[in-house]
Amino acid sequence: MNITISVPEETIKEMVKRLDEVKRKPKSVIKAAVNNTSKKAQSLLAQKASKVYAGKVAQKGSVISASEIQKASAETLSAIIKFRSPVHEIKEFHVSSLSLSKTSYKKNGKRGGRKIKGNVLKGSSKPLDAFVVQFKNGHISVVSRVPGSKMKSNPKKEKIRKLLSPSYPVMIKNEKVYGETSDEIASILSEQVAKVMDKVLGGK
After folding, report:
1. CB 61 within 8 A of CB 43
2. Domain co-membership, 63 together with 103
3. I need a labelling partner for 138 at 20 to 30 A (CA). Which of 113, 175, 192, 200 fits?
4. How many domains, in total, are found in the chain?
């Protein structure tokens, strides 16, 4: 997900008018306000995601490390905050156990043994129709059976698939993250515009 930070046209017109009075170039002032805002917005979004999502993958530092800022310049007066990552596995958020599951079956043919709980959002842990396996390469995953499918190596068993969860772009796009911070980001931009203008105009 890309989030663009830019000053509204009406605000730019007002800035240009005031800066012309003191013979200052508006582009450098706009650039400073936008870049200051983008850094604060990046931190704010990561902090919000850490409050909404569970696990180490959602910690503020982890979210920030998966993002970068394309800064504004004199030629391009907008900054872009880019969040990148593949989809995560649910184990990167929270599961009750990553101990390898022992295969056992009930009389009705359903898999028995300890139930695993997991959650992506904080406070939403629930039982998963899943179990833990270790692949030949040593990778451990929480997986579930694919109904109606057959394994090539053992046609009597259904195929397995990893339980996947949101990537960072999807996490940030969540209404509880970007949706609840967009107004605050706009306020930060207004504050930064006022701050750099005051500095340039000498407090006028």
Report:
1. no
2. no
3. 113
4. 2
